[in-house]
Amino acid sequence: MYKIAISNEKGGVAKTTTTVSLGATLAEAGKKVLLIDLDAQANLSLSLGVEVDRLKASISKALLDSTSLTTIIQPTGIPNLVLAPSNHEMRLAERFLPIQHEYELALSRLIKLADLDFDYILMDCPPFLGAVTLNALVAADLLMIPTQAEYFSIYALRSLMNWVRRIRLQYNPGLVYRLLLTMFDRRNRTHRLLSEQLRTSFAGGVLETYIEIDTKLRESPIAGVPVISHAPNTRSSMQYRSLAQEIIAYVQET
Amino acid sequence: MYKIAISNEKGGVAKTTTTVSLGATLAEAGKKVLLIDLDAQANLSLSLGVEVDRLKASISKALLDSTSLTTIIQPTGIPNLVLAPSNHEMRLAERFLPIQHEYELALSRLIKLADLDFDYILMDCPPFLGAVTLNALVAADLLMIPTQAEYFSIYALRSLMNWVRRIRLQYNPGLVYRLLLTMFDRRNRTHRLLSEQLRTSFAGGVLETYIEIDTKLRESPIAGVPVISHAPNTRSSMQYRSLAQEIIAYVQET
Ligand SMILES: Nc1ncnc2c1ncn2[C@@H]1O[C@H](COP(=O)(O)OP(=O)(O)OP(=O)(O)O)[C@@H](O)[C@H]1O
Ligand SMILES: Nc1ncnc2c1ncn2[C@@H]1O[C@H](COP(=O)(O)OP(=O)(O)OP(=O)(O)O)[C@@H](O)[C@H]1O
Ligand SMILES: [Mg+2]
Ligand SMILES: [Mg+2]
Hints:
By secondary structure, the first copy, chain A, is of the alpha/beta class. The first copy, chain A, has 11 helices and 7 strands. In chain A, helix 1 packs across helix 11, helix 3 (about 60-65) runs parallel beside helix 4 and helix 5 packs across helix 6 (about 130-140). The complex binds adenosine-5'-triphosphate (2 copies) and magnesium ion (2 copies). One magnesium ion binds next to helix 1 of chain B.
């Protein structure tokens, strides 16, 4: 069971879009996938058509009251793909998790206790380096960092790298990270320039696959389905499929 | 002294870009402007070329230790425009502010005690509805909500509207809000459709001025200057100038 946290403090870099799209393409490739929505915005849950206001139990209940993960996991209508949804109560988790003993391990404990049988678990994080994101990075095998080739997004990597160093020392020595270039516009000079700089300074730390601007990714959340269901042959569907293949190959090697 | 909080829980909708651009265009129009960076990412401070790691004191010190705002305000090199910068210590504010008595009033008290003499104060908020954003909304006369014409950004308005109602009841009955359409691409069908829907459902709550996609806005933070200094005649410079005029006219009427 390989656990991927999808995180970047910078807002709007396609964390949620990557979680739902990669989840769907891994499922299409026959892998059993659990998506965990850790953001109070609940955008991942919305992307899959979940009526967030009607949820009886969400991930925040599991984290704060230690109810089993299995009681909140629900189907998505897509074969091999299930979801642990979020709602506004996740705002409470940011404030009340730190009161618990060893709060950093809450999510890891939840996953272990549930004795789950998935090939992949993907965790969508909020745009904030707090208690919730800490839990995801402590639980993860891989930190995937969606990054736009723009100044603020690249600057955000500094604090995230400091966090990775600290988490490796204190909780999760095996944590690996990989950057994913998202919302890339090949006609834009700044994008081309900064993405070259990223590949040079991070060497093997940047995934081969990159995701270009594709308006079908803006449309699919409105339809409540992943982009490969909404527009199976659009460019971003192909790119997220090759991302899934790159991840599957990476996991098999390690 | 008119105080504007620029906030939206949704990440990447141009909160920071709007704060620095509107601040600069108000200053260009002869108004004395203070910008307050309330985000641990410190993107507003970066946009003005501040070396964030070398700061002796930032806004978090003022909020947590009640040191005077005047000791942290610094020049920006642009006439009529000064800044209260942020740094990574703002992550602590999210966790430790709620311990203080009446923590929601920390920023309002800071502004009152400093006995400042500005025409406008603009506050750039993090993409998270927590203690820091609460402080900004309690202190503000106007909440400006940068909004992309995209599904998640529009969905985020629901929780922000709930917050506005609660804040009006408990702390700040005069709080008014206005949506600002940002990163608008007139060639994109989803953008055109959703922006029409926004204008209909929010009636007078949407500012006339809207900001279109303009790559000069991605370049100016790299140069450490506002877009009107980097590219004075580009489309977004004109649009942010007309936003400044719209705000000045609104403030004079009220
Ligand atoms: N490759 C792409 N092409 C076009 N639009 C995209 C692409 N990827 C994401 N988007 C759109 O950009 C916006 C931001 O993406 P998304 O919400 O997934 O980012 P996020 O990092 O999860 O944001 P937050 O920080 O708020 O959690 C969304 O409206 C999404 O539909
Ligand atoms: N009108 C525009 N045209 C093109 N790019 C833009 C425009 N407005 C903002 N941007 C770019 O989009 C990205 C997001 O903008 P910005 O960082 O200001 O959003 P934000 O809401 O402050 O994000 P966060 O939620 O992380 O604080 C930045 O890289 C910025 O340069
Ligand atoms: Mg998201
Ligand atoms: Mg910002």
